[in-house]
Amino acid sequence: MGRERGKTEAGERDRIGAGEDVVPSRRQYLSLKAQHPGAILLYRMGDFYETFDDDAAIAARDARITLTSRSFGRSGRVPMAGIPHHALNHYLARLLHAGHTVAIAEQLSEPGKGLVERAVTRVVTPGTVVEPGLLPSAENRYLAAICRLGGRIGLAWADVSTGEFALAEFDGPTAPERLAEELARLNPAECLVPDQPDGDQPIETRGHRTTLERWHFEPAGARTRLLRQLRAATLEPFGCAEWPAATGAAGAILVYLERTNPRLLPLLTSLRAPALDQQVVLDAATRRNLELTHSLRHGGSRNSLFGLLDETATPMGARALRRLLGQPLRDLGELRRRQGIVAALVEEPRCRLGIRRELGIVGDLERLAGRVVQGTATIRDYLALAAALRAFPAIQARLRATGERALLGCAESLDTVPQLVSVLEDAVEEDAEQGALLRRGFAPELDAVRDAAHQTRSWLARLERSERERTGIRSLKVGFNKVFGYYIEVTRPNLPLVPGDYLRKQTVANGERYITAALKEAEARMLAAEDEIAALERATLARLAESVQAHLPRLLRSAEQLARLDALLALAEVAARERWVRPMLDESDALEIANGRHPVVEASLGGAPFIANDCCLGGEHPRQCVLTGPNMGGKSTFLRQVALIVLLAQVGSFVPAASARIGLVDRIFTRIGAHDDLPGGASTFMVEMVETAAILRQASARSLVILDEVGRGTSTQDGLALARAVLEDLHDRVGARTLFATHYLELTEVAGELSRAANLHVAASERDGGVIFLYAVRPGTADQAYGIHVARLAGLPSWVTERAAELLDAEPARAASPRPSAATPLLHEDGESYQLTLDGIPRGSLGAAQLARELRRLDVSQLTPGQAIDWLAEQQRRLGYGRDG
């Protein structure tokens, strides 16, 4: 399609050059199109934005509008598709979602006087959208750029609606993986890459992929552009002086904005180089599996962790909360600072309520400031900015009134920008009748023109009464419409009373319309005044925008602080409502959760009790736990809740538990659920193995690993062997704190052999031929999988489940004995293997070995009779003996 469009555009340019007979509007369109060959050109014609040629076919398909055609003189009919001007944002959103760049050509002169002058006034790409109607209020929309220099990979990103501008650089063999993880966090709408990549390895991107000439990524030129943009002499203060690849990526973003919409550049006043080594790494699979911001079932934020926590009062606070969840920290000092703020807010409900009310006045200050700097703000936007700044002192006062050290710190760091408040209060006001106005005295020239227009308007208002008195025509009316301007209307019965100085202007159904010399002169004055007022208002707003821009860095810092306060306020609101607790954070490797709960599942129960469970990993406890139990029994909920509690703790939040001690983790890995990647040619099992491989290669002893059903996508023998090998590698080499859920009951025997591993199971009970899920996690192993019971609950036909039960019963000794293993048998001190002759336990089996081990550990002298009976019952249950055994 791209090549065909190029041929068509080149052909049209050739015909123009050859002097082919083309109507002027068509010639004008082709000239503008030649300036933006890679974009869909929306060409304003009256009440529509029209597209032509290949653009029309693409717009009809992706914007879902009607494709027609039109004749343009001898050049014949050409395809066209139009968008109503009042619905531009609706259809523009569709085109941007499809990844298109859109150039918008507006009419610059009034129709009716020859060819209307037109020019492309803006170019919109997926990553450079600033229109409020096209931006998700609770999400950042990032433009990213990627630059590879040898073994280094640079990444830069910007949100042109808020002014966020940051970069990072990755080096070494893990650089591609780190890039993929950061792109998964940012989820950019558009990625810029060089048209000629460095080396043969392709650059992986997210969002719409846009290529730029390679030389725009060169570090030397990029450094010069960055210094000019930041008005700095060196990049040292920004932490990226030794990052050539990242500098190249950031410079490419500046080039791209200069090319597409230069008005966006003034908002990029600073550059951040976040310390990624102080963040908890989350890969794309973990973000998806934990449903941090998007529900797997619903697709949106509903039933996600973000959806539960989003009690923010402002859109910028919601975006900050989303960033916090996507960037858990390993910085113990910063985490404790955040915890202190959340704890103080939990204890101060009146303070929370008051600050939320004031933040509601502040609104989306980040994007409001962006509109001001980009020159698209209205007088009402400036009025909103003044109201937002006036709310700052009230927020400060509420924070100080608590006396809490953490909140006092927030108050002191908030810059109220009093000079800008003074400028705005002098400039704008709210009028009860006319709405937002530029205040009288701020622009004397504008005041003078307004006064003249007011006098003319007053004369016009008195004209109807004076003309009625002069002519004696009581029904005479003075009116106005956009086509004919001002007029005096007289009905037919009164036409004989029309004075001689009335000039006929228009005949209407019930009379005639006239104009006088005085009325015509007043109309000319009025129209000229309106044009002059509009021009002076634009000039005044531009002057006001310069005043705002002079204080922009301070304003954006305050907006960022209030957004973060709003996010922490939301965490406090949820913690108070849901009775969450403050976790203890330290640098140990212990993970101790008492009565932990899944935050989203608990909130969805509508007040019904949630079965809380403990989890202890690391420290004095086993580092790996094998979790067994029935489907629908709560294994996946338990796995996810442990990961979410750790993540919440390392965000700085309170957690859903009775108590928690979290030794900081460096990464959270999850391998949960089954899905394939058919476009990428990967089956469900292949995806499972790819994700598992990434965990084994990247996890460390400080990581938290959540694995669910490893090996289920292949044969039982292969799957069991792979699952065992993965478990052993995590235990012997990696050492990560691990929860390993499985239906392979044979793995429980392996866990019994590993010194730092233990077995857990989700309890269930059989009653009257059915199964009751207890959702309680207990030590030990599950006695069976209850798969047939779950199949019955799912509605599988009874004849199928009954046949399955018959087949299961027919398998010899399956329920009584785990599958034999080639594991080395337990030996006596003299080297002889245990010879157990208990009925039904094969010599040398894992069951015999574990029973022998338990017997060896047992201190009979310390047992009460009741404890001895309980121990025997547990061994009987583990070996598969029932009461009738």
Description:
- The chain is of the alpha/beta class and 885 residues long.
- It contains 28 helices and 28 strands.
- β1 (40-45) and β2 form a beta hairpin.
- The longest helix has 34 residues, at 517-550.
Structural class: alpha/beta
Strand order of the largest sheet: 12-24-25-26-22-27-28
Number of helices: 28
Mean pLDDT: 86
Low-confidence stretches: 1-19, 813-840, 842-846
Helix amount: 40-55%
DSSP E strands, number: 28
Features:
single chain; alpha/beta; 28 helices; elongated; 7-stranded mixed sheet; 885 residues
Question: What's the topology here?
Answer:
Layout: H1 2-17, H2 24-35, E1 40-45, E2 48-52, H3 53-62, E3 68-71, E4 77-84, H4 88-97, E5 102-107, E6 118-124, E7 143-149, E8 152-159, E9 164-171, H5 175-186, E10 190-194, E11 208-212, H6 219-230, H7 244-260, E12 281-282, H8 284-289, H9 305-309, H10 315-326, H11 332-346, H12 349-362, H13 365-373, H14 379-401, H15 405-413, H16 418-427, E13 428-431, E14 435-438, H17 444-471, E15 477-481, E16 485-491, E17 503-508, E18 511-515, H18 517-550, H19 552-578, E19 584-586, E20 591-596, H20 599-604, E21 613-617, E22 624-628, H21 635-649, E23 659-663, E24 667-671, H22 684-698, E25 704-708, H23 716-734, E26 737-741, H24 746-753, E27 757-767, E28 770-779, H25 787-793, H26 798-810, H27 846-857, H28 865-878
Parallel strand pairs: 1-5, 7-10, 10-11, 12-24, 19-23, 22-26, 22-27, 24-25, 25-26
Antiparallel strand pairs: 1-2, 2-4, 3-4, 5-6, 7-8, 8-9, 13-14, 15-16, 16-18, 17-18, 20-21, 20-23, 27-28
Helix pairs in contact: 1-2, 6-7, 10-19, 11-15, 11-19, 12-14, 12-19, 13-14, 13-19, 14-15, 14-16, 17-18, 23-24, 25-26
